[in-house]
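User: Show me a protein chain along with its predicted structure.
Assistant: Here is one chain, sequence first, then structure tokens.
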Amino acid sequence: MRLFQSFLPFLFLAFLFSCQKDETANQIPEVIQAQNVDPALQPYFEEFEYQAALRGIEVDLTAANIIGNIQEITEEHVAGQCTYGAAIDNEITIDQGFWNSFPQYLIREMVVFHELGHCYLERGHREGSFSNGACISIMRSGLEECRDNYNSSTRSDYLDELFSDNN
């Protein structure tokens, strides 16, 4: 009997631990964050890759070593910029003031995608407007008179244009 009593705590612990639910069994694997991308920009980078894939284009921003950060841009009226060159990795910077002032996902997405259009897709600016005054591309420079019309209804058309071969 004494032998049984000495094993009783071990049996209880073995039962307790063997019956616990494995909390990691049904979890979706965590996406590995790119090392040089601000965590606030990471979802936009992932969405850019996803939207490209929907259009048959393979994009790997991590392999391309695209850097993304949010910090103050001293130039007025600039929401984002892409810096690139032989000595510099492609780097997008989103202005901290813009980021704080426009928390809406689609507005931020348009600016991040515009900069990734420069840094990854190597797209230049595309000016012009539709007859209703809306910009024809999110790759506009902002120097021409057109109205941004990037919203949930027009998003797909703008992204088709962004990822098209005709540019």
